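User: Quick sanity check before I run a bigger batch. Here is a single chain. Can you write out its predicted 3D structure?
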Amino acid sequence: MEIAYYPGCSLKQSSNLYDSQTRDVLSLLGISIKEINDWNCCGATSAGKYDDFLAVAMPARNIGIAERKGYAEMVIPCSACYSRTLVAQKKLADDPDLKKRINDGLFQKVKGDLKISSILEVLARIPKKILKQKMTHKFKQLNAVCYYGCMLTRFPVDVDVPDDVENPQTMEQILKGIGVHALDWNYKTACCGASAAMNDPDTAINLMHKIIADALERGAECFVVTCPMCQMNLDVHQDKVCEKFGINQRLPVYFLTELIGLALGMNIQDLQIDRHFIQMAEA
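Assistant: Done. Predicted structure follows.
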C-alpha cells in the first residue's frame, strides 16, 4: 500500500539530505511513498504565533490534498510538521464550525479520516525479521542517545500518539534492531531552542549545553534525531556551545535514517552524512 508523503519546507532546503535519505531508506525497506502534489508550508511554529486560524488552515490544505487522492495515511518526517498537522487535524475534528469555515475556502476538502504518522511510526512497523534480512552492515559498539526534542512529544491539544510522551522508546527499539546501543539519559525530550538560535541565541546555547553535557556524561558517542531543526541546531552550533562551556569532545548528530541506511548497506556519500558539520566517528 502506498503512503502519502509530506516532506515540508526544511526537507526541501536546509535538510534536503534528510528527504533523500527518507525516500531511499523506506524504498529499501519495501515501503512505497508518494509526495503529495502542490503541498504548502504547514506553518510550523511561526503561523501559530501569528494567527490561530492560519495555523490550522495551512496544514488542513495538505490533509485535504492527501485525502482527495484517496490515501489512508500520510507520513511526515519533520517533527514540527508532524506536530502541526496532527494538531490541526484534532482541532478540525473538535470544532465543526472551524472545519466548515476552512473547508469553504478549500478546493480539496478535509474529511478527517487520514492517519497522520511520524517517520518513527512507519519505521517501527517494519518486522524485525525483515529488517535483519536486509541488513548488510554490522555496527561496532556504538553508544547513542535518542533525542526526540519537544515537537515530537509535546502537543497543545490532546492527541493520540503511539508512544509515551514523557519517556518515548520507539527510537530506542528501532536502534536496537540495527545493533546500536541506546543509552538512557535525562534530556531526550528537552527543547534545543529551535528558531531561538536565530533571535535569542543565548537562550538556545544554554539549552543546547544542557543537552550536550548530559549526553557526554552518559558516555554517548552520537545523537540520533528525527527533527531537522534539532539536527541543525546541535550540529551547526555545537562548536560554539562547547567552546563557551569548555567542552572538548564533540558528538555527531545523525538522522535516524542515516544509521538505518548504513545498516542497509548504503555508504556515507549516498546518505550525504559527510555534509554534517560534526563528522562521524567510525561506526
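The longest strand covers residues 73-76.

User: Great, the batch can go ahead then.
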